[in-house]
């Protein structure tokens, strides 16, 4: 077993639709299975000692998908925020939702706010759901807030920009996993990932198991991290 556990892991959950297609199932079944796997993997990650797990659940680009698929994904996220919050409270886990609030229905925004408030005292770990999230949009929103606050250009630093990001209170990810074999970030944590280690397993997200997660930790344990100074 690994003896070097990343403090913060980000996961791009890719391959739900391909998993379903391989099994001659509707793509929505893949999303359902993928949703269930978020719970399985997050609990295992926290058991292993990970303190922050960020899940790329819905990107700003995903609005381009069919209305049926988008509607189903919104319903799954409603289920997550309404049903999982009580479990997270019992497990002493804080829920954070990172992303733009644009385009989201009021009932969904209310659920998000209520779930975050309900779990705010969780100290064991943080489950960070990146929802309606895009790395470029995050930076654009931060710049707009800086301008609106009348901050002079001379005062703008990396630390200042970081303080205006959606994830200002979360340290940068040590390790980013993208399932399904695709080797790109697709807008995930554009600002925060500059020194993250990356891992691209071929398994689709619904079949990515706790054993696969442990293999990823073993891979991380073999890495020698460098931050530009050595």
Concise structural overview:
The chain is of the alpha/beta class and 230 residues long. It is built from seven helices and six strands, in the order βααβαβαβααββα.
Question: Any overview of this molecule?
Answer:
This protein has helices at 16-22, 27-48, 67-90, 106-118, 135-148, 158-163, 210-222, and strands spanning 8-12, 52-59, 93-98, 125-133, 175-178, 197-199. A 6-stranded parallel beta sheet has the order 3-4-2-1-5-6, with helices on both faces. Helices cover 43% and strands 15% of the residues. It has a single domain, classed as 3-Layer(aba) Sandwich (Undecaprenyl pyrophosphate synthetase), CATH 3.40.1180. By secondary structure, it is of the alpha/beta class. Helix 1 packs across helix 2 (27-48), helix 2 packs parallel to helix 3 (67-90) and helix 3 (67-90) runs parallel beside helix 4 (106-118). The protein contains 7 helices and 6 strands; from the N terminus they run βααβαβαβααββα. It is globular, with a radius of gyration of 18 Å.
SSE blueprint:
Layout: E1 8-12, H1 16-22, H2 27-48, E2 52-59, H3 67-90, E3 93-98, H4 106-118, E4 125-133, H5 135-148, H6 158-163, E5 175-178, E6 197-199, H7 210-222
Parallel strand pairs: 1-2, 1-5, 2-4, 3-4, 5-6
Which CATH top level class fits? Alpha Beta
Number of helices: 7
Please give the number of β-strands.
6
Strand order of the largest sheet: 3-4-2-1-5-6
- CATH names the topology as Undecaprenyl pyrophosphate synthetase
* Count of folded domains: 1
Give the full name of the CATH homologous superfamily. Decaprenyl diphosphate synthase-like
